[in-house]
Amino acid sequence: MSEAFVTLVTNDGYALGALVLAKSLRDVNTTRKIAVLITNEVSEPTRNRLREAFDVVSLVNELNTHDAANLALLGRPELGVTLTKIYAWKLTQFTKCVFLDADTLVVQNVDELFDRPEIAAAPDVGWPDCFNSGVFVFVPSAATFEKLAEHAVSTGSFDGGDQGLLNTFFDYWPTAGPEHRLSFLYNMNANQSYSYKPAFQKYGHLVKIIHFIGQFKPWHWARTSSGRVYAQTQEAPTHSEFHVQQWWNVFDRHYSTSAPPVSLAALPIGFSGNVMRIQHGEALPPRTAPSGPQYLADYGRSGSSPAPAKQYDFSNILHRLDVLIPDKFHATGEAGKAPQSPVYSSQATEQLQEISATASKLHSQIAELESGIQAGRYANPSLASAVHQEVNTAVNELAEKLRSSSTK
Ligand SMILES: O=c1ccn([C@@H]2O[C@H](COP(=O)(O)OP(=O)(O)O[C@H]3O[C@H](CO)[C@@H](O)[C@H](O)[C@H]3O)[C@@H](O)[C@H]2O)c(=O)[nH]1
Ligand SMILES: [Mn+2]
């Protein structure tokens, strides 16, 4: 009898999550095997890293086997990413498995989950009558896989993701016995509900699995030079820094002294890192293919489809910067537009020169960013808007400095 934890990785970005997840499982001394499903997109160096960390690395080749359900699916390529998760049912070398999203972190031993039946999962915080499909107990079976694939063709997914598929397939879950219902401690996510904080204070020490749901994953967070994480945008408020730090602590324990576990060039990293790369003249990571339905992106979830153009629009910021840089302002010669601003009539103090120099630097940085965004070098459109936000704040600060120095 062989049992395993299973995760899924369809690109190098999620691979980093899976590597840390695997280490977290070893850290809590699981006695079970650890398996990962990968797809063709995962690069060879990353596969090697995964082979080091996992007992089983299984390449799933969606939509090209010869059974009836898969043939039907060939006509529905949009279900591809959604469906990859159901390939877990094909791991029939195992008698029972626990699926874990690559964005989960195990902080206490959870081997007792293998005592649960299929399907066992925790309620989704957004709609508790559905289960969250980031952590679930299942029984591999070729027959169930076929039925799941047929179900995908006939019914589809009501949310475009695997959660909407699995919840209608296992529609008995809400009324099934207590053995099918996992405690929130096995799929805990920090959230905005008013009840979250006090409950976390009381029960937080009991948490066993943290799930970083949403678009911003721990590996997108920026860190200080001493390794502390810091929130970089208002778009990532749901993961408490505390948990993200826990994730990075596992990363540091296992990977910080070795070479980066996956090629950083392939990672949609945090925007602060991108700004630093630009400063050092490095190329930004290539844009990855959109990986989720539009509605997920709309909800700031796991999809990544192009963001509205306005998020990329730096022209207003550039214009304000031009005003801060006397040479530029006069060079662009916008006649009649506040040329006699009190700012420039005041004496050219050292401080003003400094402000102007900083503004120039920001200006060229933004120009680089803009061309990077246009060339599609941003893996994640939200990063562009995050950069936009950061630059905006910097310009505000400069303007404020300038105001206070010119009124002195
Ligand atoms: O490009 C992708 C996207 C996802 N995954 C894998 O699929 C999982 C699910 O995606 P994720 O970004 O973690 O989704 P969540 O933010 O957790 O969003 C929710 O919605 C998803 C779609 O229904 C469900 O799969 C999740 O369990 C549910 O928590 C990931 O952890 C990975 O294992 C990839 O390998 N590559
Ligand atoms: Mn997830």
Q: Would you identify the regions where 5 or more consecutive residues have pLDDT less than 50?
A: 263-312, 328-349
In order across it, which strands form the biggest sheet?
3-2-1-4-7-6
Rounded Rg: 25 Å
CATH superfamily of one domain: Spore Coat Polysaccharide Biosynthesis Protein SpsA, Chain A
Class derived from helix and strand content: alpha/beta
CATH level 3 topology of one domain = Spore Coat Polysaccharide Biosynthesis Protein SpsA, Chain A
CATH class of one domain: Alpha Beta
Distance separating the two termini: 79 Å
Percent helix, as a range, is 40-55%
Could you give a short account of the major beta sheet? 6 strands, mixed
Number of helices: 15
Indicate the proportion of strand residues.
5-15%
Averaged pLDDT = 74
Keywords: Cytoplasm, Glycogen biosynthesis, Glycoprotein, Manganese, Metal-binding, Transferase
Subcellular location: Cytoplasm
GO cellular component, one term: cytoplasm
EC number: 2.4.1.186
